[in-house]
Structures are given as C-alpha cells and as structure tokens.
Amino acid sequence: MNIPFFIATLFLLSSRCYAQISLPKVFGDNMVLQRGQPIPVWGEARPGTLVTVVLGTVRATAQAGKDGKWMLRFPTFTAGGPYTLKIAESGTRNTGIELKGVLIGDVWVASGQSNMEWQVQQSQDARKEIDNAGSPAIRFLVVEQDKQLKPRSDIRGGQWKVCDTSNVKNFSAVAYYFARKIHGDQHVPLGIIQSTWGGTPVEAWTSRDMLLTSPISRARTLSNDTLRLDPEDLIADSLNWIRTWDIIYHPQNNTDQIIPAPEYNDEGWTAIAMPNVIKDFGIGNYEGMVWLRKKISLPGSFAGKDLTVNLGHPEMNYSLYFNGQEVCKNVWNANPTHAFTIPAGLVRGGENTIAVRVAMLWGGGGLNPPAEDIYITDGATTVSLAGKWLYKNGLETAFPKILNYQYYPTVLFNGMINPLIPYGIKGFLWYQGEANAEAAYDYRTLFPMLIKDWRQRWGQGSLPFLYVQLANFRKVQPLPSESDWAELREAQALALSLPNTGMACTIDIGEGNDIHPKNKQEVGRRLALLANEMVYKQPVMASGPQYKSFQKEGNRIRLHFTHTGTGLSTKDGKEVTGFAIAGKDKLFHWAKAIIEGSEVIVYADEVSEPEAVRYAWADNPLCNLVNSAHLPAIPFRTDEWKGITQP
After folding, report:
1. Any domain includes 234
2. Which of 304, 489, 525, 639 places its Cα 20 to 30 Å from the Cα of 221?
3. Residue 362 sits in which domain range?
4. How many CB atoms are located within 10 Å of the residue 465 CB?
C-alpha cells in the first residue's frame, strides 16, 4: 500500500466529511458560489438523514434518500462575502463541516487542451504578472486530471485557492487574464473552475450519450465498451510516464558524455536539412530521444569571445552542447527565448561541434522554422546554423509504451466535467481544436455537440459559451494553399450559429514556430470583451469584422462585413494583406484589396472572372484587416468547395 497516498486521502476525506455527511471536492474553503440564481449544494449522508446547511445567515435543509444522496438549493444571493458554509446533521449540536472564506460572485468553467492549460508562469511577462497578482477576490479550482470510463460523482482532487503571488503561477493564463479583466470591470468576485488536459480531442470532453447521436463519433465511442481502465493499468501507465520523463531529463548510456564530443564518429548518421520538425525526419511517428550534430566553421575573430547561439524555438525539451560541453537544458519552454551564451573558453576559430539532444513527443521536436532564427553570433557577425545536420535515434533507452487513455471518447467528461454538475456557474470558456485539426470537417458536428451537451446537463438554459479560435501557427506559405487549420477555424466560426456563443479571434497573435503562443493576456482580454458585451450587457465592441456577403462587379468582388465599428482599416497601417481570389478553375491567387468604409473590394490581374474569395485561409496567414476597435477580421471563404479534411 502507498502509505503517504493513503494518509493524504484520509486527510482530504476528513476535511469534507463529518460522521457520514460528506461534500464533493468541488466545494471547499475559499470557493466562489454563483450569484443571481439559486445555489445548489449536495453531498451524501446516511439514508434518511436530515441535513441542515447554513450559508451566512440563510438556512436550508434536505433529507438523504435511500441512496444516501441529498441536494438543496439556497435562494438567490447578491455578490459579496466572505461567508461560512456550515453542514451538519439536523437536531444535533455537532459542528459538522465548515467551509470558510466563501464568496458570492460569478463562476466560469475554463476547459480545453494545452493552450487553456498553459500557466501564467509560462506566458508572456510571467515574472511581472506573478509579482503583481494580488487579487483576493479571484479564486481558482484546478481540477486534478482524471480519465474514467463511467461518469463519476466527484473529482479526483483539487482545492479552491486565492489568487496571489504564490498561487497564480500555476493557474491557466487565459482564464486568469479573463478573470482579472472581468473582476476589474464588473467589481464582483470571480471564480474559475479549471478543467484542462493538453493534447486532447473534443470527443474526450463529451458525454457518451451525446457522442452516440452522431455517426462520426458513434463507432469509436462504442469501442470504449471493450476498454478496461483497471487500476493496475492506470498505475502502470502513470509509472511509464514517470519513466519517460526520467529518460528525458537524464541522458541514458552516457550519451551526454560521448556524443557531443568533437571527436565522436558520427559516420552513418542520417543527413537532414535544418530547420525541420519530426514529421519530416523520415522516422514516422517516432517518440523518443533524438540526437542532432553539426560541424560548423567559425571566423577566427570569434575565438576567445562569448558567443550567442539561438535555436529559434524547439518546441519540446532539449539540451544544447558546444564542443562537448552542455550549454543549456530547456524544460517545457522554461526560457522566454532560446538564445544562450557560449562561454569564450569553449570557442575555437575554425571547426566547432554543436550537438542537440531533443525529446520527440506528440509529433513535436526538432528545430522549427524559420531558418533565420537559428544562428551563432558575436554581436557583429552572424553565422547561420541552417543547412545540413546529422541525426540519429535509438541511441538511448526507448520510451515505454504510453496508452494515453485521455484521448479516448468521453473519458475526460466522465472524470473532470460530470463531477462538477450542477455547480452554479455563469458560463463556459473553451480553448481547444488543435487536436482535431486533421479531421476539421468533423469538428463542424462535434463542437456544437459538446456545447449542447454541457448546456443540457447543467440545466441552466443556453449558458454563455465563449471560445478561442485557433491562432496562426506553422510556416508561412508563399502561395495560397489548402489548410486543415483554416478548416478547423471555419468549423469553430460556424458554431456561432448556436445561441449565446462568442468567439475570440486570435489570428494575429499566434507564433509560427510555437503552438503555444505566449501572449495569453490578449486572449483573455478578448474573451472578456465577449463576456462584457454578451453577458454583462456593456456597450463594447467584442468581435472583429465578420464576413456577411459578396457581390461581383466585373473582374472584382465586393465584400460586405458586420462588426466593423466606424470602419475598416489595417492593423499596421499598410496595404491590406491576406486576401486570395479564384475563378471557376478554383486556382487562388493573391489579391489586391481596397477598403471602402465597411466594405472591401478584391481583385487580381490573373483572375478576369472571379468566383470566390478567401481571407486568412492558411495555417499561418499574413493578414491585417481590423475594425475600429483594432480587432482582427475573422478568417473566411465565400466558396463551399470541398476541403482537404472533408470525407
């Protein structure tokens, strides 16, 4: 038996149980309860027990049923606090359970994959943000990650925490910046229930019942019926993850002492042009440690100087060696840049050796483009690191097989969403889609299914559902081209047809070489603009220009937009970019665009009879159209031609 875990479990149970009365872990000290609507409180007790619950001075009672479950609802409260919530068996003088520091305000559920999970300490200006994070009226409950085949009634773990300099670093950056903005604007306590897991598809967050309603998800959901998440399997999977990270952090077989040495014989290694990423390495869906080496000739003037080496932005964990010595070890993008100092004592004029040990996980790894971001410099002269490198995998212990159960349909809904219901909330925040990009057309169906599913289960009507459209990412393409990320963004935009939904466009604040762009402050602000307009009924402009319709005018197409404010312009004050136009041949050409108030006229010399226009239709488009609030135009296309992800 794991004695420390057993003791910790007893402690958690004792904090929420008295006699046989218990509360689920979504309730706790320092929580925020939803204002302006009846407040649900529930738990378990001996069958037939009459339970009394007091919030402030308001008392309510409920009787446990035959299954031992009880629930009650307090009348509506206005924002305020702090209060104490007391739960005890009626007719006794026992103190029972007491939860202190309870505030009444607005509660938002923040969910999705890694860009919602991305922490304040990993985002832009992290040190400054952490040092200035004294916001006691903002509270977070970070739900412990859990995967389950059946819906659970309680989360695995998690405690409400006050937002301060010691706690904020671990909170979702997007959700924190959203909460900070709303708290400052509305002057009410803000509670965030953060339920996130990086790399996960939308199906994992949707209930079984809902997934079975669509042929897109039905078969795979039914396949879960033969899956068994036995405790032994879950423990083995967890241990395999521990072993994997041990390999990542601790080089195996003395490779760090042998391979970086200038005299190491790398004959037989495979040549590859850098920058490059794993999918182009020619080793398939490999996951493990890969070593890269490069011989580079440096000017004699570099000798005896401290140099700066820049690797652009390798996505995953890596170590860099120069002439046999470790220069840096990067763990989970811990460094805001990937520029490091090479000590003068290691530098030679002429031939030098660079080695990089990089972890390949989830399809990532390698040295990401663009080529101009990888170099060595003394401040005056720069030597490019682009070009031929050598690589080899299989030099270290292989990663153990990871089953990644979190990718399976409905398992995260069961373990991380269902236990939260019916906690009173104001609405949802969602940032997800990267994991569904390869099947973007199906997202047209799957994403609205999730929205409807959560709303139905909470039973609070069409709760506000605010979400982030995927940011720009990957290499900039020189010519108009198809894009699964563009099709995923389109699927996200189509969900705006559902009532009470809002989408924050981030097509202008991504990073081409990082799937986790650092500017989460602006993402949170744009979500807060949507909330201020939709939920709090403030007179603000919350969306960028949205395509409405078009008309042909000879060899030109005139586009009409909504949400333009006092008119359209460009973000950088330069000519409009991002438009492409095509004729009946469906071949797109970059277009010239002229702004006329709230309309844009698009044309290209190569297209005499235009049929369709696309804007920002690429993985990483160069686009600059904004409205008078400087919010970016939402990517769109006027055609309905078959895309690359449409079955």
Report:
1. no
2. 489
3. 249-393
4. 25
